[in-house]
Amino acid sequence: MENESSIKIVSEWDIVAARQLGRTIAKELGFGTVDQTRITTAISELARNIYLYAGNGEIRFELVHKFEKRGLKIMAVDHGPGIQDIRRAMEDGFSTAGGLGAGLPGVKRLMDEFDLITSLGEGTTIWVVKWLRERRFG
Amino acid sequence: MDFKQILESSYREILRRYIEESSETALYQGQMFSRKSIKQQIPPEEIISIHCKVLQDLIPDISTEIIASFDFLIEFMMNYGLAYQEHLSLRDKQLELKSEIEIAASIQENLLETPIPKLEEVDIGAVSIPAKEMNGDYYRFVQDSESISVAIADVIGKGIPAALCMSMMKYAMDSLANSRKNPNDVLTNLNSVVENNVDSTMFITMFYGIYDFVKHSFTYAAAGHERGFYYHASSQSFEDLKTRGIVLGVEKNITYEQYEKEVKPGDMIVLLSDGVTESRTENGFIERSVITDLIQTFMHLSAQEMVENIYRHIERLQNFEIRDDFTLIIIKRV
Predict the structure, then answer these.
(1) Which of A81, B43, B66, B88 could make an S-S bridge to B81, C-beta 3.0–4.6 Å?
(2) What is the ipTM of this complex?
(3) Which of A34, A44, A90 would you mutate first to test chain B, the one with the most B CBs within 10 A?
(4) Is position B95 within any domain?
(5) What's the CATH number where B320 sits?
(6) pTM for this entry
(7) Within 10 A of B185 (CB to CB), how many other CB atoms are there?
(8) Does A137 sit within 8 Å of B79, measured CB to CB?
(9) Residue span of the structural domain in which B228 resides
């Protein structure tokens, strides 16, 4: 892949497209099956949030390096209403209780790095990174 | 080797044994081993991935369809894994909260502690037992040169909000030292404090009395509080301490009626919270007569021994589970 690619999220089908692209990139990078699934689950969650709360937005993929480590960075960008209470949205049990899925705490657990900027009425950007684990065996 | 490597090799061994023997021993080993992996917080999707990998080693000609189905299973189990991790972190949080509440409860206990006055003329006993960690009942004695004032209050509601509210009541009462001459004035003042300061959904019932141990008279007033008893030693009979007055915090500018009783030797004043009368057994609420019977049973004891024995008795009646805060005070003229 090139160093950067993206999928626009407008309809529910775009969530599947974002997952598909994310899985392909993760596989190419050398992530194992479980990590591939973690990454796609996180993409699902982020893309669904865009689809449900912002209407439309974008999922961007980028290869990143830190010293010898290589990883996949995913950005979810939207221009929706923004998150009113971030601490609440990051609280365990808030979204899972209503059957809404893993929620942002779930995304944070699935990935290695997590950051978020949100502004009411202007939108939300979420970055996550998964680092490739050094495989010493197998 | 880190735990994941140990996990993989042990899993392989146990699974191999099971495939070869189909034995209960291998299953038992598997069960024991799963405890270790739970302790190491290995999520379920990781186990499926190991299972799939090991299976390909053990059965080299396994069909690709079966192997592919494990990818589906991993996807399916991912949210279970997340739910499990969430559960672990919520459990830690709960333990943290529990210890904070325990600390708060002990602070409250120290804050609200009131010594029971010891006098030659009157014998006083009191117990107050919270149903949960924090007590929503409160009693307080203040001793002056010729009298003892006694307050017993119950916040409608339980737990932490009720307890916070009680701390405020204590300081409100402390600041009303000057109006402590008349119980009905005390209640009028406290009513406006509660009206002004406490959440509109929070109400407090209160009984306030002053025992003059020179004249041996008891003046009292109440704000929607559970009726107490008056024991006449001469006729060996109980009378309800009837009062009129609305609970604190409902309306502004309320006046309360005040009552007075002449206390003869051997007479008793019994004050309680609704946690006593609303004690529940398998047959429903206990009758008020159960309490007066218990008082009669333990009448030969000191006031403190009486209230403690009554509490223990009612606790046993309810199978040692009390549902509401329980407060009982007995004041007996010697």
Answers:
(1) B43
(2) 0.81
(3) A34
(4) no
(5) 3.60.40.10
(6) 0.68
(7) 18
(8) no
(9) 104-333
